[in-house]
């Protein structure tokens, strides 16, 4: 499968727009919307508790938890569809993932703020594979040392984005809110924990 290399400095970002066909992606979206154990969670930002502006769920083939923003995610076991997607992603990424953090953005008001996936349990140069299903949403990158260095990428239905090497050291990313009317979007981020 041919990747689009974003070619941003201090990073390796590979985008596969048609990782899944539109038909397959529709099928997966409907199945996962129903099968994932979606939860609304509270996170702590600058000492204050807030409801996360999205629903989440965490899956793993081990018992390792994933903590961020004072939220400790306990893993659910993988089920067949999610395991199959993990295997499809592994063929392209060339690694075996242990874990998957799933996000559900219910509408344009749901979002994911500026962050790097740099928690210690991910290791030094984490590889993260991110599958998008449902509504197309923009994803933004901003260099940590030069905020002028930015990039915007439309994450399309059925696409895969791989972030690896030193990307998380040098770049933050976000999925901003949008004023436009948008349908639900599911994002699956496969990780090694
Ligand atoms: O929804 C997305 O595309 C990004 C999710 C993300 O950055 C994360 O879960 O760490
Ligand atoms: Fe992230």
| Major sheet strand order | 1-2-13-10-15-8-5
Helix-strand pattern = EEHEEEEEHEEEEEEHEE
Q: Can you tell me the overall shape?
A: globular
What is the arithmetic mean of pLDDT?
96
Largest sheet: 7 strands, antiparallel
Name the hetero compounds present. Answer: 2-oxoglutaric acid, fe (ii) ion
Q: Could you name the CATH homologous superfamily?
A: Alpha-ketoglutarate-dependent dioxygenase AlkB-like
Strand content bin: 35-45%
User: Percent range for helical residues?
Assistant: 10-25%
- The gyration radius over C-alpha positions equals 16 Å
Q: Give the CATH architecture.
A: Sandwich
Q: How many E-type strands?
A: 15
State the name of the first-level CATH class: Mainly Beta
Derived from helix and strand composition plus strand pairing, the structural class reads alpha+beta
Descriptive overview:
By secondary structure, this protein is an alpha+beta fold. The protein has one domain: Jelly Rolls. Helices cover 17% and strands 39% of the residues. The chain has helices spanning 22-35, 80-93, 167-170, and strands spanning 4-5, 12-16, 42-45, 48-51, 55-60, 66-68, 71-73, 99-105, 112-115, 128-134, 137-143, 150-155, 159-164, 171-175, 185-191. The longest helix is centred in the N-terminal third of the chain and has 14 residues, at 22-35. The radius of gyration is 16 Å and the shape is globular. The protein starts with a strand and ends with a strand. The mean pLDDT is 96. The chain binds 2-oxoglutaric acid and fe (ii) ion. 2-oxoglutaric acid (AKG) is lined by residues 101, 103, 112, 117, 130, 139, 155, 173, 175, 187, 189.
